[in-house]
Structure formats: structure tokens, C-alpha cells
Design brief:
The complex is a heterodimer.
Chain A lengths: L2 H9 L4 H33 L8 H44 L13 H15 L1 H27 L1 H49 L1 H7 L2 H47 L5 H13 L6 H22 L19 E9 L3 E9 L3 E5 L6 H8 L7 E6 L2 E2 L5 H7 E4 L10 H6 L7 H10 L3 H6 L17 H14 L4 E5 L7 H16 L3 E5 L11 E4 L2
Parallel strand pairs in A: 3-8, 3-9, 6-7, 7-8
Antiparallel strand pairs in A: 1-2, 1-4, 4-5
Helix pairs in contact in A: 2-3, 2-5, 2-9, 3-4, 4-6, 4-10, 5-6, 5-9, 5-10, 6-8, 6-10, 8-9, 14-16
Chain B lengths: L24 E5 L6 H8 L11 E2 L2 E2 L5 H5 L2 E4 L8 E2 H4 L5 H10 L3 H6 L7 E2 L7 H14 L4 E5 L7 H12 L6 E5 L3 H5 L3 E5 L5 E4 L1
Parallel strand pairs in B: 1-8, 1-9, 4-7, 7-8
Antiparallel strand pairs in B: 2-3, 5-6, 9-10
Helix pairs in contact in B: 4-6
The chains are: A alpha/beta, B alpha/beta.
Chain lengths: 534, 209
């Protein structure tokens, strides 16, 4: 087993009891099935001889017992193993999200695509739930039940037991190995193929207007169709291997039945029992070809996940974090980011306003990212209340310093929920006040649904200026002591932009520290300090 | 022309009438939310007017195949994005010489020159480019198409004064076989327009200069 799967197993440790319970119930259910068949064989053969009915009583009770218990055991096995698998899924998603989250936005690989990230995080994590229930559970059940059956057969007839053991080994080891071999080349390609399809579908939808205008819509659709058919080819091959595997096991079961009847020396009722025992034993190994394929697929998915989350996050929390800062002074000292800027100094305090200017591409946004610790600088430091930002928990830093980014993301929900991201407990009056300061109240009052208006996927149902104002209202709602506004007036007409800058500068009068990142000149004459990036 | 969005109380645009002559530079002005982007979407035929019509060269656009119409139109969206993949492909995959010419015009050549892999840079979820740089690159993409009608949504937003001036001059100096319609808040860009379509507060036409 590969390293990636061992690491998944380690993650599943807290669930080992539940998983083991599912496997035990599975073995009991399959065992009850085998016992049902062989008892039935005995009962039918015995009854054919028309003995006194009383002498059949034990066998009849046995058939009833195993028949009922098989169903009940199977029911609880399903319950237990699904419960364990879903808990595992829950845990895996949490574990991988925790490790993915620190990578966003500055730790992702350059060139990472939304569809591929989504594919890994949704489909590949989904695939891992099959590891226990479909890949590792069935072989354990097969070994336990197979051994039990062979031992039982040994008590009746050693020669028949030997034949049965050989047939079970062939069906339980050779067939799954062969199935795994058939899908080896394709099975590992399924996860990347699925992610590629997802990526292209998402990008074709996301860029639909641009593609339509460029006249490349049909070209994009053809790419999606090609992805789809290559995924279908892979899945067809997997289905072929599965079908062949299942069919071969069934064929072996039939052959084993005949062989056992031919080689055995026992007669009468025991013969009937033995024959059905042989047939039933194959129930235990029927899921094995599928298990072999799932093992390959889960391994591929686990590797894809670890490849992503094993990236070193650009920032980490310290081992023993400093207590949450009060938010008195935010100071930047000879800050440098390789190849972007060097030697930047600025200081923010409650009531103080600073503007950061510079041509586009000078690193204004990069510097803003350093202030909220999306990334660390390559030289110099950012001090919050006299301590380096790296000494605090990231959460505490971001509760103290808020970045209102350019082209802020709007979630596909209502205006109210988009605002409450900044302050969970804000009531409608507070939301309206914040929108009023952002100059969006008149607009809000023209909306029939008001705060309940749905803004659409990525906020596409509201105009660029309104999106900007919702983002600003978020910042106004936030209780953070320091506010960093990255190009707050973009997409706004001149009078509105001026009003917004005035409002932002007023925030300082409330005792907050404000950093205005801007390339345009408006309001620069009224800030306490202007810091220019070359 | 009138445009209503389903589920919204008032119309986004109400009774707009305007003329654009071939080769003109036309500014679409108006406060935020006046419907500038919606007007461009109508000209791109991404939306159809709820009432009224657009006539191009005497033909009602509703009678023209949208793809055939768009094959003569290039567009700079309000929130330009570069498709994942190489920068060269994102810019339309034309010959490098053509791309560089367009990049020069859009004041974006220095942006590409500063990237270690130049036009071969791979773009994705994380980008080394700033919003202003992406806008200039997207403008270059639109210019490189060489199509006769350019629709530019806020071409100078996110740009510093120098880049904005370069872009403004480039738009003014485009050959006169190109018609340019741009939505903007930038007074200096409005100055170079031959004609201004001023949408009022609620998308009501206020004046045609």
C-alpha cells in the first residue's frame, strides 16, 4: 500500500472502532448467508427422504434463524458501515479544508485552476470514503468467511475442502489481481480526467460571454465534449473489468460446485449440504474485483489531495501565539518583497489616515496582503502593537486589521448575508446604516426585496459600482481597529468616488486607523501621510 | 430602447435613443448603476432589448445571427479576466508580433516584458498580475482582434494616471476604420469622445452631445 493511503488510514484512526464494527457485522452477515445455504441444502436433501417431521425440526429452525439473521445483520452492517464512511468523509473534508485554507490566496500553485481545485476537494475526497467500505472491508470479510467455509468443509470431506480452497483462492486472489491489471492504466487516469472535465465545464460557463463574443464558443464546447468522451472511455474500461471479474467469479462458483460434487466421497444429505456450501462461499469473494479497482482509484485520489495540501503555506501560526492585540499601532518597517518593492515604512494609529500610492503593478496589493498576513514579507517587518505579525494567530491579526480588497468577492446569496460576513450579529438597522455610508441606500430602496435581494453568482446581478459599495459597507460594519481599503473608488463615478473617500476618511475620526490604497489623487491632500511606491 | 431585468422593479434602461456613426469614439457616461454595462451587453447581443431595437447599417440586429454580428465586435468586459492557460492563449493566440503591437497600444508591453516567461506565462487561480495590469492586457486582447467595432467597459479603471493617459491616447488614435464605444467615469476619456451618450440616474437618456 502506498504512503498516501497509509496517511489516509492514519487520519481515520479515531473511527477505527466504528469501521471495525462494520467489518465484523459484514463477516457475520455473509457467514449467516453461507450457513443459510448449507442448512437449506441439508434440509432439502433430508426432507427428500421423508423422515418423521420432528427429526427436521432443528434444521428448519436453523434455516429460519439464518434467513432472518442474515437480513438483520446485513441491515445493521449497512447502517454501521455507511455511518462510519460518512463520518470519515466528514472528517476528511474537515482535515483537507483545514490544510487547504492557509494556502489561499498566496500559497496556491501558480496556474492552479478553480475546476481542478474543486475536483480535488469534492470528487477526490468523496473517493476516499470508498477506501474502507469498498476497498479494505471486503477482503477482510472474504478471508474470515473463506477460512470458516474451508474449515467447515474439512470436517465433512478433506478432498472437497481442498478443491473448494483452490477455487476460492483463484476467485479471491487471481481474479481481483487480473481486474486490477486491466484497469491499472485507466483507473489512475479517472480522477485527473474527471477534474479536467470539471475544469473545462466551469471555465466554459464562467467565460461564456467572452467566448461568445470571440466566436470561440463551439471550439470550447468541442473541448468539453472531447473531455467527456475520454472520461467515458475510462469508465467503460472500468465497467468492463468489473463485469468480467464478477462473471468469472460466478463461473468459478459453478465450476467449484461441480468439482466438489465430483471429487467428494460423501453421500446423501451431507452431499447436498456440501454442494450449497461451496456455492454460497463465493458470495464472500464476489466484491473483491471491485475492491481491487477501488484500491487503485482511492490511491490516485489520495495522492492528488496530498500533492495539493502538502504545499508549504505562505504563513503559519506560531507555536505559542501572543495574546490578541488591542490594535493600538500598526507599523511597517523597511518592508520588502523580492522583485516588487523594498524599504517601505508607514505607521497607522487610531485616528490616523495614510495613503499608499504608486503606479499600477508597483505592489500596492502585495503590501496590503502583508498587512493582513496573507503573505510574509521577504525583508523588514510589520509590527502590530510592537510585536511582529508573525507572533500572533492569523485570526487575531485579521480581526484587528481588515482588508477591503479590490473587486471583493460577493457570495451567491442575499445582500444581507453578504454584509453579515463582516459582522455576524449585525441587525438590519446596522446593515442599512453601513450601506448608507457606502452611498447605496437609495439604490437599496429601489429594490423590491431590499436586503433580501439575491446578488447572483459572483454578484453578477448587481452593477460594478453597486458591488463595490456592498464591499465598502462590509468594511464599515467591521469592528476592526485598522482598515485597509484597496482602490475603494474603482468603478464609481467621480462624485460617488469622492463621497466614498470622504466617508473613509471620516472613519479615522471614530478612532480607527485607515490606510487608503489608491493610484488616483482624490483625498490625498487630507490624509496625514502619503507613502508612495515607486 | 428599453431593458427590464426580470424580478427588478424599474427598467434598467428606459427609452434610450442614440446614433453611432462609423469610426466615431463614443462615450457612454452616467452614474454608477445607470445601465452603462447593460447598454454594452445589448450591443454585444448578450441581452435583447425589452422594447425598441438596435439597427446596424439599416438592418435590425434582431434579424442578424448573433455569432455573425459578434464576429465584427471586440469587447473589454467591466471585470476583465484572462482565461487560465498561457498568457499567449489568453490574449487570443495570435502571432507574437501582432500581440506585441496590441500590447504596445494598450500600454501593456512593459507588463509582459517584466514577466520572466513573457507571453508563455501560465495563468491560473493565483495570478502575479495586478487588476490594472489585467485590464491593460485584456484591452490588448480586444485591440489585437482588429475587429471594426470595439466595446470597452471602463478601459481606464484601476490604472494609474500615466497608464490611463497612454490608454486614452491609444483609443483616440486608433485608425478611423474602427468604431469605439466605451463606458466610463473618467472625465479625460470622455473628452476624446466625438459623441457622449449620457445615461441619467435611472438609465434615462439625458443628453446627446
Amino acid at each position: 500500500m502506498s504512503g498516501a493511503l497509509v496517511r489516509v488510514l492514519a487520519t481515520a484512526r479515531p473511527l477505527r472502532r466504528r469501521l471495525a464494527f462494520g467489518v465484523v457485522l459484514g463477516a457475520l452477515a455473509v457467514g449467516a448467508g453461507v450457513a443459510l445455504m448449507s442448512t437449506s441444502g441439508y434440509l432439502i436433501s433430508r426432507a427428500a427422504l421423508r423422515p418423521p417431521i420432528l427429526s427436521l425440526a432443528v434444521a428448519i429452525v436453523g434455516v429460519q434463524f439464518f434467513g432472518l439473521s442474515r437480513g438483520i445483520l446485513r441491515y445493521f452492517e449497512r447502517l454501521a458501515s455507511h455511518d462510519a464512511a460518512l463520518r470519515l468523509l466528514d472528517r476528511m473534508r474537515a482535515v483537507f479544508f483545514e490544510r487547504l485554507e492557509p494556502l489561499v490566496p498566496d500559497g496556491l500553485p501558480l496556474g492552479a485552476r478553480t475546476g481542478d481545485l474543486l475536483g480535488r476537494f469534492v470528487d477526490d475526497v468523496d473517493e476516499l470514503q470508498h477506501l474502507f467500505v469498498r476497498a479494505l472491508g471486503p477482503p477482510i470479510v472474504a478471508v474470515v468467511v473463506g477460512l470458516g467455509v474451508v474449515v467447515a468443509a474439512l470436517l465433512v470431506d478433506p478432498r472437497a475442502a481442498a478443491v473448494l480452497a483452490l477455487a476460492l483462492l483463484a476467485g479471491g486472489v487471481l481474479v481481483p489481481l487480473a481486474a486490477a491489471r486491466v484497469v491499472r492504466s485507466t483507473g489512475r487516469r479517472e480522477a485527473p480526467a474527471r477534474a479536467a472535465l470539471l475544469t473545462d465545464v466551469l471555465e466554459t460557463l464562467e467565460f461564456a460571454p467572452e467566448l461568445a463574443v470571440d466566436g470561440r464558443r463551439d471550439e470550447a464546447l468541442a473541448v468539453v465534449a472531447a473531455r467527456e468522451s475520454s472520461l467515458t472511455r475510462i469508465r467503460r474500461r472500468t465497467a468492463l473489468a468489473e463485469g468480467l471479474g464478477q462473471g468469472t467469479v460466478t463461473l468459478l462458483a459453478g465450476l467449484a460446485l461441480v468439482a466438489v460434487v465430483v471429487v467428494t466421497t460423501v453421500h446423501g444429505v451431507l452431499l447436498g449440504m456440501l454442494a450449497l456450501l461451496a456455492l454460497a462461499a463465493f458470495e464472500a469473494i464476489r466484491p473483491l474485483p471491485v475492491a481491487a479497482e477501488h484500491l487503485g482509484a482511492t490511491e490516485a485520489s489520495a495522492e492528488r489531495l496530498f500533492e495539493l495540501v502538502d504545499r508549504v503555506p505562505p504563513v503559519r501560526d506560531p507555536g505559542t501565539p501572543a495574546p490578541a492585540p488591542a490594535g493600538l499601532v500598526l507599523r511597517v518597517e523597511s518592508l520588502a518583497v523580492d522583485g516588487v518593492f523594498a524599504g517601505v515604512d508607514l505607521e497607522l494609529r487610531g485616528g490616523r489616515t495614510v495613503a499608499l500610492t504608486g503606479p499600477s503593478g508597483a505592489g500596492k496589493t502585495t503590501l496590503a496582503h502583508c498587512l493582513v498576513r496573507f503573505r510574509d514579507p521577504d525583508g523588514g517587518q510589520v509590527l502590530l502593537d510592537g510585536r511582529d505579525l508573525r507572533e500572533y494567530r492569523q485570526e487575531d491579526v485579521r480581526a484587528t486589521v481588515l482588508l477591503s480588497g479590490q473587486d471583493a468577492h460577493l457570495f451567491a446569496t442575499t445582500i444581507r448575508e453578504n454584509l453579515r460576513i463582516a459582522r455576524q450579529d449585525a441587525d438590519d438597522a446596522a446593515l442599512r446604516e453601513a450601506l448608507g455610508r457606502a452611498g447605496a441606500l437609495d439604490w437599496l430602496d429601489t429594490l423590491p426585496d431590499g436586503l433580501d435581494t439575491f446578488v447572483g453568482e459572483q454578484g453578477l446581478l448587481v452593477s460594478g459600482g453597486q458591488r463595490q459599495r456592498i464591499a465598502l459597507a462590509r468594511a464599515f460594519l467591521s469592528p476592526a481597529r485598522f482598515l485597509v481599503f484597496d482602490e475603494p473608488a474603482a468603478h464609481l463615478d467621480a462624485p460617488t468616488a469622492a463621497g466614498i473617500v470622504d466617508t473613509i476618511l471620516e472613519l479615522a475620526a471614530e478612532g480607527r486607523g485607515v490606510l487608503l490604497v489608491s493610484h488616483s489623487g482624490y483625498g490625498l491632500e487630507r490624509v496625514d501621510e502619503v507613502v508612495g511606491l515607486p | 430602447m428599453t431593458l427590464r431585468y426580470p424580478g427588478r422593479a424599474g427598467p434598467a434602461l428606459l427609452g434610450i435613443s442614440a446614433v453611432v456613426e462609423p469610426g466615431e469614439r463614443v462615450a457612454v457616461a452616467g452614474p454608477s448603476g445607470a445601465g452603462k454595462t447593460s447598454l454594452l451587453a445589448l450591443l454585444l447581443r448578450l441581452l435583447e432589448p425589452s422594447a425598441g431595437r438596435i439597427v446596424a447599417g439599416g438592418v435590425d440586429l434582431a434579424c442578424v445571427d448573433p455569432d455573425a454580428w459578434r464576429s465584427g465586435v471586440a469587447w473589454l468586459p467591466q471585470r476583465p479576466r484572462l482565461a487560465p492557460g498561457t498568457l499567449r492563449a489568453a490574449l487570443g493566440g495570435r502571432a507574437d508580433a501582432e500581440l506585441w503591437r496590441a500590447l504596445e497600444l494598450a500600454a501593456a508591453a512593459s507588463v509582459v516584458a517584466a514577466l520572466p516567461d513573457g507571453l508563455g506565462t501560465v495563468l491560473g487561480e493565483r495570478t502575479p498580475l495586478s487588476a490594472g495590469e489585467i485590464r491593460r492586457l485584456a484591452l490588448a486582447r480586444a485591440l489585437a482582434t482588429g475587429r471594426p467595432l470595439l466595446l470597452l467597459d471602463e478601459p481606464t479603471t484601476h490604472l494609474d494616471a500615466t497608464s490611463a493617459a497612454l490608454v486614452t491616447r491609444a483609443i483616440a488614435e486608433l485608425p478611423r476604420d474602427t468604431t469605439v464605444v466605451f463606458a466610463t467615469h473618467d472625465a479625460r476619456l470622455v473628452e476624446i469622445a466625438d459623441r457622449v451618450i449620457d445615461l441619467g440616474v435611472h438609465g434615462v437618456l439625458e443628453a446627446v452631445a
